[in-house]
Amino acid sequence: MKRYSRNMKMLSKDENERLGDFRISVIGCGGLGGYIIEMLGRLGIGNITAVDGDVFDETNLNRQLLSNSDTLGQYKALIAEKRMKLVNPLIKFTSVTEKITEVNAEKILSGHDLVIDAIDKIETRFLLQSTASKLNIPMIHGAIAGWYGQVATIFPGDNTLEKIYPTRDAKGLESELGNPSFTPALVASIEVAEALKVLLNRGDLLRNKLLYIDLLEHDYMVMEL
């Protein structure tokens, strides 16, 4: 298909066709999630579930791809769905306008091949990790704060977040260091690359590792966990 012709050589024809069968759940449709959904849709991931119970407000306009003057006050997940109908109407897109909780997490994540973390609450990340592990689903973790970002790939049973965060109720640095426009785009790109490698079983993964990114000093470090 001409739509995906520029994916070729990087991906084989068979790999490209397989992308249409995968189901990915993106938790969060804000700074990270908007870019992640955009890239997954353009790649040709066949089934995307976007989960976010929040609406856009003015503070989102500096960085969130799906936010603009016309979308303020509207559910982020619904705007993501509208965007994907324009970008790639061939994919099946499901929007969930609920916050993910202990009550609904298993129902929302069930049946997916991969979960991508695009949220800003550490406690919710632990919920994602435990639920994905229970359902035997790999998870891609990403977080940003100011000039800094991090990415890790978590397979069921790895419990990687326990090695990254000291406690489940630890506070993220986003509120202290801010969220610019460029850091989410970079971290989202790396998360999508990791997702593609997991799905196609290719390349070296960030499993039991943490990629630390410092854009201010151009320090990029992969730490063994």
UniProtKB/TrEMBL annotation:
Keyword tags: Nucleotidyltransferase, Transferase
Gene Ontology terms for molecular function: nucleotidyltransferase activity; tRNA threonylcarbamoyladenosine dehydratase; ubiquitin-like modifier activating enzyme activity
Pfam families from the UniProt entry: ThiF
A GO biological process held by the record: cyclic threonylcarbamoyladenosine biosynthetic process
Residues spanning the signal sequence: none
Domain THIF-type NAD/FAD binding fold: 4-223
Protein name: Molybdopterin or thiamine biosynthesis adenylyltransferase
Source organism of this protein record: Maledivibacter halophilus
